Each structure stands twice: as C-alpha cells, then as structure tokens.
Amino acid sequence: GVNLMEFSDEILLHILSYVPCTDLVLNVRRTCRKLATLCLDKSLTHTVLLQKDYKVDKDKVKQLMRDIGKEIYQLNMAGCYWLPSSTIDHVTRCKNLVKLNLSGCHVTSLRLSKMLSSLQHLRSLAIDVNPGFDASQLSSECKATLSRVSELKQTLYTPSYGVVPCCTSLEKLLLYFEILDRSREGFMLSGQLMVGESNVPHYQNLRIFYARLAPGYVNQEVVRLYLAVLSDRTPENLHAFLISAPGSFAETGATKNLLDSMARNVRLDALQLPKAWINGSGLLQHLKFNSPFYFSFSRCTLSGGHLIQRVINGGKDLKSLTSLNLSGCVHCLAPESLFRKAEDDIDSSILESLVVSCCNLRHLNLSAAHHHSSESIGNHLCQLLSRLKHLLSLALPVCSITDVAASVEKPPTTPNLVPQTFGRKVRIGVQTYPKNLGDQANQKMESSVFWALMGSLRFLETLEIIGSSFSSAMPRNEPAIRNSLPPCVRAQSVGDSEVAAISQLTYLQSLTLAQLPNVLTGSGLISIGLQCQHLRTLSLANLGMMGKMVYMSALMDMLKHCRCLRDLRLEQPYFCAGAQFFQALSHCSSLQRLCIVSRSGTLQSDAVMSFMANCLEVIMCHMFMGESLTVCKNLQQSIVRSFQAERPALNVVIFPLLHEDLTEVIRDVPMRHLDEITLFKSRVAEEPPNLWW
C-alpha cells in the first residue's frame, strides 16, 4: 500500500492547499509531527480565506489568530455575517497584514479604529459602512494606517464618504451603493451626507474607479458626490472607469465635464458607463484606449455600426480584450438602430468583425436582446461564436441558439398552444422521457448549430441561456411580478434537445437556463447531470409551459448525479416541493444554498425538515412560495430552532411570494446570498475579471 507520509513535501503541500486553513491549523497539524510542520508552512498560512468557510465560528477564529496571526499577510473574511462583531478584535494579532477583506462583517467605527491602529503594513482594505458610522471616532493612528492604503472596497448602506477621505494614497477605489430609499419606519431618506462628512476624497493617484449602484435615487445622489471631485480634476493615471447603474441615471453638467476631461487627458483600459451617458452622444468617438481588457455597454442603444467604428476601431489593438458585456444592447449586432425593430435579423458581418478583432475573449454576454440569425449559410450566430476558443463564460438569449430552418418550418407543438400566462395546478406524476441517452443524442440533431457550438467550447465553465423577455418573479426593492411576458417566437422550438447539447461541456461549473418554452420532459437535464460532474451552481427558471412543472421527474434524476452541486436556484410557477423532490435533492451531498421561487407553489414542511437533517452542509434555505404566512413562519422557526446551533452561518427565509411585506424581508438577507443566488440576474462579464481578490 501507499503511505501518504512517504510523498515529498512539495506534493503534500499541494494536497494541503485544498484544505481550509482552519482545519489545517486546528485539526490536521495535530495528527503527526510531519504534518504539524507542513501545516504551518508559509505557503499555507500567508493567505487565509474564510469567506465561504461556513463552519467557522468565533472560537475557531480566535484560536486561528492566536496560533498563526503573525504569519498571515492576506485575510479574507468577506460575507462572514454570522460572526459577532467582537470577533474582529482578534484581527489585531495579525500585525503583518497587507490585505484585509471584511465586507459583510459587522464592524463599528470604534472597532475599526482600534483594529486599523495596529495594522501598520495594511495596503488593501474592504469594509461596510452601516448606519451609525462616524468617521470622527477614528483615531489618529487609524487614519495614519488609512493614509497608506492604496486599495479600498467600500459597501455603503448609509449616505457617507466612509473612510475615503482618510485614504490619501488611493490607487483603486471600489464603491458598492446599497442605500435604500426608505427607512424601516417608512421615512424617505436623503442622499445628503451626514454632518462632518464634508471632507474631500483624494483621487490624485487613482488608477481604477468602480461604482455599482443598487436601484434607488438615493444611491444616485450619493455617487454624484463622489464623482464631483473627479470632475474638478481627473487623475492622470486613471485607466479604468466603471459605473454600473440600473435604470435611468441622467447625465449632469458635472459628469459631462468629467467625461470631457477623460477624453482629453487619459487613455483607458476598462470602461462602463450608465446608458444615458452613452446613448445619443459622441463620447465613444473621443475617448482614447490603451490596451483595453474590459468593456461593458449593458442596456445601451449602441448600434453595431458605432460599435465597430468607435470601439473596435477596425480591429486595431483589441486582442487584449478579455471581457465584453453587451447585455441588453438590442441593436449592437445591427448596422444602425434607426428604423430597426428589436426582432429584426442581425448583421452577421458585424458579429464576424467582433469575433475576429476580439479573438482572445474569455467572457462574453449577449443576453437580454433578440439576436436572430438570418438564413445565410455559415453566418449563424452560433457558428461565428464557435471561433472564440478561449471562452470561459458565455451568456446568450434563447432565441439566438435556434436553427433558422427549424424555427421557420417547425410548427409549434400542441402543448405550447396553451396560453403562457394561465395554468391550472396539476398533480405531478412520473414523466416519460427517453431512458437511453443514445436515443436522446439521435433526437437532438447533432448537426444543429447550437450542438456544434457546445462541442467547440469544451473548456467553458459558465453558461447562461436566458429568454430575451424573461423577468424574475422577485425583482429588487419592488413587489413580486405576477405575470410574465411570453417568450420570443424564434425561441418556441428551443427545448430538451438544446439542453442535452450542453452536456458536452465537461468542465461546466455554473449553468443558468431561463424561459425555454419547448422543454417537454427535461430529458436533457439528465445528460447534464451525468456528464457535467464539475457543476457547482444550477439555476433553472420557467422551463416549459408556465402552468405545469413538466420536468420534475427528469430534474430529480439529474440531482442524483450532482455530487459537487453547491448552489441550486429554482423559479417555476406551481412547483411542488414535496418528499420526492427533497429525497432526490438529498443526493447532492455538497449542497450549501437552496432558493425556490414559485408563484402558487406548495411545500411539505416535514419533507423540508428531513432534507435539512440529511444535508449537513446546507446553510441557506430561501423559499418564496404560495403558502400562507403562518405555514411559512412556523417552518422557518422550526428550521432555525433545530439547526442554528450546529450551523452558525444558517440563514433561513421562508415567505409568501406575493405578500406585501416581501421587500422588507428581503432587505435583511445577507448581501452575499442576495447578490449571488436569491436575486436572478445575468452574471457573465458583470464586472471586470479579478476586480477584487
């Protein structure tokens, strides 16, 4: 037999690098002398990642800091919402810290001051700014540390500059605005900064400016205050300027001056602007780029002609571009937007120019638009995209993947003649589907353009296929949507065969499928479960007919093979979360987070409790169904009482989907879960790659 301890130190260190640091220090190193030495090797203690170590508690953090605090140079505790604020006090033992991420942690002004006062080597910091934050409570030692910080990520839950004015050496500034327009008491909030918040930020050394806004006018008011300083004097070394703002964010005189100054004085490598700042302006014609690696024109009315002329510039210097977000750009593949309907065919020559010029793309988002290919042979969107051999993540609208001949000639199947917005609750029995996967492949028309595309992108890790008219039943800060728009006519033929084609992606880790009308049995899901063994995140929404959960049996068969699945999100009207479903889901031994959104959906409380008892890794259970408030509250309380002590990170929200207080419940969900799984959105090329660690 082979003795593990006979391996070389290099091999053992590589193996140990996959073990969470808390386990290495608190458990593994106590097994023998050799491991006791290896577990404290600098390669393993230099960077400590606790951000998704859901089993860590305050006592483990305290012991970890005692044992190896002086050896830690990078500490990531992002999203550790379950740890009490007193846990942060132990970070002071890490005297040599250079990078610290406390996003999502509970930190008061006084605690932050005490901690930063002892971290003289700190250069990178991420924190939240919550109501009650008072910069006047920061000590002079704390401000001295902040003056040396060159990278700051700040999430704002209240109008404030936070610690930005203290950071006089900033080179990278990331701002996340999560301020609500109304207080819990229902009072309207103002975007004006609090008294004592008039200090001016220092941007003279800034190289990267990024701002992401949640919906709401207060967020827009506050970000304008941050931008006001930039409009007075644009940093000479600025090379990435990114603002992600949903809805309408109007351009003002100050922002126009800022953009004019940028056009004159800087050369950018990354750009994202609100749609109102780009639409109808000649801005892109005047901006200068160096070696761009990220562009986002999400929801802009930018035409393909302008995209080629002003951005791609005839293919010059675009080999450096690795990430491109054209989500919601309905005219980006057409020569002109004037007099063009969103459903008209795309101009394949524009897409071909894009593919040739940006041949090193790794992340591409074309979702939320109607990209209909013409009948020209060899010019289908899927055929052109198959040339992008370096793609790691891809988002496409459903109507873009259908074969033109199939969508034109194939009449709608009988089930799809049923109106999409109505449906009776039906009993879910065992569905019939091909048991022989070989038969499935034969049914699939392996000559289809989408099948060929999936075959050519063998190393794709993230795939999103989303209906161009799909909208989730639970948007941010608004009541739940009761009716959904019907799918695009071109998308009517997309169903089981296209889903089966995805099973060719051996290295697939994240899959999102939304509004595929012709899913009749879900048989393609079984192929994915069998072939895509690295799948960690699965999101399915509105597959097949809206009034029936037609793919339940196939989904249960699929889940039995998903041993690595960690996150599952299901959004489907009339979903029955019963004993059979949860029994199948229990095979997903690695599952950590579950979210179910279902208008008129039902659940069985006993089945949910049994599932939580069997799946020991589950720390998030969100269900927004059609059950009564009493049923939901009782189940939520039972889960918390039974499992909270053993699972410190447990977060449970079970609530009626159409209840008027849903938005109040949503605001208490930890941002990590809300942003990553509970709210539906396209995540491909949402941010530049490696924006933060």
Automatic annotation (TrEMBL):
GO biological process: SCF-dependent proteasomal ubiquitin-dependent protein catabolic process
GO terms for cellular component: SCF ubiquitin ligase complex
Listed InterPro entries: F-box-like_dom_sf, F-box_dom, FBXL18_F-box, FBXL18_LRR, LRR_dom_sf
Alphabetized Pfam families for the sequence: F-box-like, LRR_FBXL18
Domain F-box span(s) in chain numbering: 1-48
Domain of life (superkingdom): Eukaryota
PANTHER family for this protein: F-BOX AND LEUCINE-RICH REPEAT PROTEIN 18, F-BOX/TPR REPEAT PROTEIN POF3
Protein's UniProt name: FXL18 protein
